[in-house]
Design goal:
202 residues; SH3 type barrels; five-stranded antiparallel β-sheet; four-stranded mixed β-sheet; 32% strand; globular
Length: 202
């Protein structure tokens, strides 16, 4: 082969922030695909898929599936219904831990539907715009791109794109006085939601 001019194109190394952004985007895409796969199977059981969360990496991945209005019997039914679907899902090749549970008294808010379902409830919201801060107040409105939280009588509109973490806050009531502790022992507190775990190896 003859000799000719050679050109070298230098591509700058991605920053840590760029890498994290790509990783988050990939996980979000995987979760959305899994949501589309699992929602019909769960709806066939007359149940509603609330949320899907995929965390960890390699053999330490955990897939958490939360379903509204679920009990121990329903957890078993959901696990049996979605396990074959997950076995064939290319997004989950390899080993992972499957957890199926109810949302609990304090629910994570990720989608506009989650926010709409929590209107008039107390919420805790972590926002990055560009400084990171946390608000706790009443969720008074939720649209497709933003929500509105009222804190001490002041309303603030927050874009979902700026929210890094959000959840509802359950009011456990005032702490009992020392003399009242014995009288409250028989009272039951709300459970955080029944859960079942299953190790899956593809």
């Amino acid at each position: 082969m003859g000799r000719g001019p050679r050109f070298f194109l230098h591509s700058p190394n991605p920053t840590d922030e760029d890498t994290r952004t790509v990783a988050v985007t990939n996980v979000d895409a995987q979760v959305e695909t899994l949501r589309q796969r699992l929602a019909p199977a769960i709806a066939a059981l007359d149940l509603e898929l609330y949320d899907i969360d995929l965390s960890g990496s390699g053999r330490a991945r955990t897939l958490r599936v939360t379903v509204n209005g679920i009990d121990l019997d329903a957890i078993t039914a959901v696990t049996q219904a979605i396990s074959p679907i997950l076995d064939d899902a290319p997004e989950l090749s390899g080993a992972f831990l499957l957890e199926v549970s109810s949302p609990g008294v304090e629910r994570v808010l990720r989608t506009p539907a989650h926010y709409r379902g929590a209107i008039n409830e107390t919420v805790s919201v972590k926002v990055h715009t560009p400084d990171t801060r946390r608000l706790q107040g009443t969720l008074v409105d939720a649209e497709s791109e933003h929500c509105t939280v009222e804190v001490d009588g002041q309303r603030e509109q927050l874009a979902y794109a700026d929210i890094t973490q959000a959840r509802t806050v359950f009011d456990w009531g005032p702490q009992p006085r020392p003399g009242q502790q014995k009288n409250r022992k028989s009272e039951k507190t709300p459970k955080a939601g029944a859960a079942a775990s299953k190790g899956v190896t593809a």
